[in-house]
Request: fold
Amino acid sequence: MTRFPAVDGLRAIAAIAVVIAQVGLQTHAPLAGVVSRLDVGWAIFCAISGFLLYRPHVVAWFSATEPPLTLPYLRGRALRILPALLITIVLSIAFVPHPATTYLRWAVLTPLPFYLLLPGLGRLLTGYERPTRRSVRWRLLVLVALTVLGPVWMAAVTATDHPQAGLWLPGYLGWFAVGMGLALWQVARATGRLGPSALDTLTRVPGTLWGIAAALLLISATPLAGPYDHSAPTPAQALLKGLLYTAVVACALFPILTPSARTVRVLGGRPAQIGARLSYGVVVYGFVVLGVMRGPFAVQLLVTLVGAVVLAAASYRLIERPVLRFGKNTAVARTASSVTSPSSSPAR
Reply:
């Protein structure tokens, strides 16, 4: 399987969850604990990115082919992310009453550095030996260890009173590692490098896993996982919240690796595909709409969601999609030119 259609629906759900959580932070939201913990959507985004971007490296390792080229990969990421992000920063500076450095710092210190790290990390985790069962298990253990890094990091920055360090990559790397580990497991299982296990049974009961994810999210919505606003948690609360979010992400993502027909219909249909395309724009433009909105929770949520969707749709159609097409056409033209150039032609 090279495409995972149910990822689309999960990505759209994550985007809506993030917007709801952000609105809840600015208003007196009902069920404040649950609403605030919907920021787990950030973790879901990270895990999906880790899964989709690391999987080509694993496939190349297993098939003994060259891994994805770094420059085309970075170019593709930049074309997908930067247009909407730059527009958001400009709009935020123009209309949102906060210092411009707030948005620049948010843009630089959020998980974007992972995209720069991935090519090297992918080569490190898929090189040096053949993909035997032993080597696969060893790498899975490394990725499991990385999933603990995020919660430990957040507890450490809380204990040392350095909250800005919570925006650095180590605070998010564990969520990316969840997706990377699932990518490695999925390819290894599909190619027979790993044998059957109890995990295969779990893929056939998605409702059970999603129920567990919901239960863990409700636990995180208690004061055990910290305050519901921007107040600093204790180190123990930060650690518990990070661990719970990691478990929620794993339970949410795992069933879509081998989805049932019903799961594909619900999470991979046309509405989910459209939602996935707009998900990134909905999140980033949601910050702009929310920054100029004031009102009760229900009103602010409705206006923010509608405004973010409208802006995201316009941005995708008028800017992001043309930029992506231009980049794709340019890459195709370069490839065709290199193939037909005299230097690449056989000697006569």
Summary: The mean pLDDT is 88. The chain has one domain: 6-334.
